[in-house]
Amino acid sequence: MRFAAPDDAAQMLAVYAPYVRKTVISFEYEVPSLEEFRGRVEKYTKRYPWLVCERDGEILGYAYASSLYTRAAYNWIAETSIYLREDCRGTGIGQKLYAALLDCLVAMNFYVDYARICASNEASIRFHAKFGFREAGRCKNIGYKFGTWQDIVTLEKVLREPEIPPRPILPIERLGFDGAHPYIIEKND
């Protein structure tokens, strides 16, 4: 396991593409171009952790955080997602990736994490429940794909209790990764 880099975009996109083409898990209709997907990786990895699990140079899955909302008052929350290669589901890779991602968010001082999941994706809802996520809301018939309307369930996990004033979000550059869990790198700037 390691932090993702823009050069990982092609392999990450190959993991993601089947979710777009075959499922309602992603609400995208078309697989993004490599250029667009690489742009997402470049944009979000400046502030949020994106992790990949690789074996012998091959990416088996990735998990990432991004912004749920863009206004300043929401700076202390994140939204997370995870995608695994089809042949890697049920192997424990997803649990390790997601645990490390949540550890990163805690280390960076995020307070709450959200996951928005298609309600018909019961496996993902159960997966998140193992990490302590609880349902925070449901939007009915919010997405239309493959001839059906889909509900979205919003799941919430409190990462730390709120403080006044809130702790500052630490920059991603302050995190290191030891292969299993993130840790803070002390930098003398």
Give an account of the 3D structure.
The chain is an alpha+beta fold. The chain has one domain (2-163): Gcn5-related N-acetyltransferase (GNAT) (Aminopeptidase, 3-Layer(aba) Sandwich), CATH 3.40.630. The protein has helices spanning 9-22, 34-44, 93-107, 122-130; strands spanning 2-3, 50-55, 58-66, 77-84, 112-118, 134-145, 148-158, 175-177, 182-184. The strands form 2 sheets. The protein has a 7-stranded mixed β-sheet, with helices on both faces. A hairpin with a 4-residue loop joins β8 (175-177) and β9 (182-184). The longest helix is centred in the middle third of the chain and has 15 residues, at 93-107. The mean pLDDT is 93.
Features:
two-stranded antiparallel sheet, 7-stranded mixed sheet, alpha+beta, Aminopeptidase, globular
Structural class, from helix and strand content?
Answer: alpha+beta
Shape: globular
The average pLDDT score comes to 93
Helix coverage percent: 25-40%
Radius of gyration, in angstroms, nearest whole number: 16 Å
Number of E-state strands: 9
**Residue runs with pLDDT of under 50 for 5 or more positions:** none
Q: What count of domains describes the coordinates?
A: 1
Question: What's the main sheet like?
Answer: 7 strands, mixed
Name of the level-1 CATH class: Alpha Beta
CATH superfamily: Gcn5-related N-acetyltransferase (GNAT)
Q: Indicate the CATH topology.
A: Aminopeptidase
Quickly count the helices: 4
